[in-house]
Specification:
Blueprint lengths: L4 H15 L3 E5 L3 H4 L2 H6 L4 E3 L4 H13 L3 E5 L2 H12 L8
Parallel strand pairs: 1-2, 1-3
């Protein structure tokens, strides 16, 4: 039986969240697509919808990690790379 990777991801982070209270989930307004909505339902105080602001999502995750939390950052791959580069001023000239 085939199961979508995102389905397994959503259910697995819920199981991990039950084991470790330091696990948090950040996502960029796509919880239905990434299935992080399962975590949001189970642990609403440890779930953060940052909205369409992937740059901020990564910075928030880094700060939370520096405070001992274990962030799972969920968004689409292209936004997780290119949008973060914009925030840090690292966007290659070919994209400008």
């Amino acid at each position: 039986m085939k199961v979508a990777t995102r389905e397994v991801y959503g259910k697995t982070i819920v199981e991990l969240g039950k084991i470790n209270k330091d696990i948090i989930v950040l996502e960029a307004d796509i919880s239905k697509s990434t299935k992080t909505s399962y975590f949001a339902k189970e642990f609403p105080k440890r779930f953060f919808n940052i909205g369409i602001a992937e740059q901020n999502e990564m910075l928030i995750a880094a700060r939370m990690a520096s405070c001992g939390k274990i962030p799972f950052v969920s968004t689409f791959a292209i936004f997780n790379t290119i949008k973060v580069c914009e925030q840090m001023g690292l966007l290659p000239k070919t994209f400008i």
